[in-house]
Amino acid sequence: MKVIQISDPHLMTPGGLLYGSNPLFRSQACLADIGGNHADADLVVISGDLTNDGERSAYAALRESLSGFGPPCRLMLGNHDDRALFLEMFPQATTERGFVQSVVDSSEGRLILLDTLDSGHVEGKLCAARLDWLDERLQEGRDRPVFLFMHHPPFRIHIPELDRVMLADADALHEVLLRHGNVRHIFAGHVHRLIAGSWRGIPVSTLRSTNHQTALDLSQSWSLGHESPAYAVILIDADGVIVHFHDFPVPPAP
Ligand SMILES: [Fe+2]
């Protein structure tokens, strides 16, 4: 199974710049590269912060960008998004119990896409309703490997500014995962960095934004990174999971 992860496009009203880059232009370059090289993807997941300010015009631009895009695509929410407006703009989005979360089953296992947005807060939350839903989905998939996608990582990355705004109820999530023991990888966004490691024994990775990055600065302050935007090509088979991080080309801005 080939899954593409894109994260944190932070779209603005078309023409708007964010940290000196045009997020719409960059996300379109990303989609074009995927369309040219991975049109065979089984699924494309955009793991949250679809927009920077939750603006209608930014969601409209995303909808327009995806209108001619080939592979099946699932959109997730991040702390910069507006759930109600997103659902108005993407009424066909899969929801469960009012949250933008869903399950994708394949012969290689079960993907579970979680909604960690806690409206009005930068940090993420799953809350009892979402944890119960996850518990049930993990129970259903108990005999198969499960792969989680979530905007907020439930683990620290040792950059204090971002660790303060990770998933707030990480211990509660861990309790649910422990009950089932079938989660094989957690793919997160939010931190705008390429990171691989493990959290309490579960392999994890995070991804750069398609627009702007976090610098490798472990001090108390957040600094802007200047790494290239990237997406991830995730290959899942009976042997396990391989993640290729790809710095897609961004043509000079018009
Ligand atoms: Fe973000």
TrEMBL record:
Keywords: Hydrolase, Iron, Metal-binding. SUPFAM superfamilies: Metallo-dependent phosphatases. It holds the Pfam family Metallophos. GO terms for molecular function: cyclic-nucleotide phosphodiesterase activity; metal ion binding. InterPro entries: Calcineurin-like_PHP, CNP_phosphodiesterase-III, GpdQ/CpdA-like, Metallo-depent_PP-like. Residues 1-193 form the Calcineurin-like phosphoesterase domain. Belongs to the cyclic nucleotide phosphodiesterase class-III family. This is 3',5'-cyclic AMP phosphodiesterase CpdA.
